Amino acid sequence: MSRRSSLAHLLPELVRTLFARRATVRFPSEPPVLAEAYRGRGVVHAELCVGCGLCVRDCPAFALELEREGRHRFRLVHFEDRCAYCGQCVDSCRQDAIALVSEFPRASPCRTAFTRVLVTHEASEE
Ligand code: SF4
Ligand code: SF4
Fold this sequence. Notes:
The structure is a single chain. This protein is of the alpha+beta class. It has a domain at 34-121: Alpha-Beta Plaits, CATH 3.30.70. It is 21% helix and 19% strand. The chain is rod-shaped, with a radius of gyration of 24 Å. The chain starts with a helix and ends in a 5-residue tail after the last strand. The site of one iron/sulfur cluster has 14 residues, from helix 2.
């Protein structure tokens, strides 16, 4: 291909590309637009959670932990750095207490930033 015909071929493409809409997102300068069904951060409706531990039992990534202090005192902890965001915990919960929402943890060099207490249940009936 001669130099002249190469330019004739490339110039329209260059102009088209210069004025085309951007195909990528500006994350992290701007927040990303996530789909409503995006499986991100775990949240628990504390009033529905009974501390049964079914979500912990079924989690394939060992990303949930139930810390018990007596029958009615417990904490449900989520380790986001282990989580596969598979949604098994949501399916396993019989109380519909746990959900994965369209938010995601931001990057951090500190592992503890990915440990979140989802529920602290302090009610004591002992
Ligand atoms: S989404 Fe999957 S990997 Fe993450 S806590 Fe729930 S069951 Fe475990
Ligand atoms: S989130 Fe659901 S499955 Fe997990 S401990 Fe609470 S009630 Fe049980």
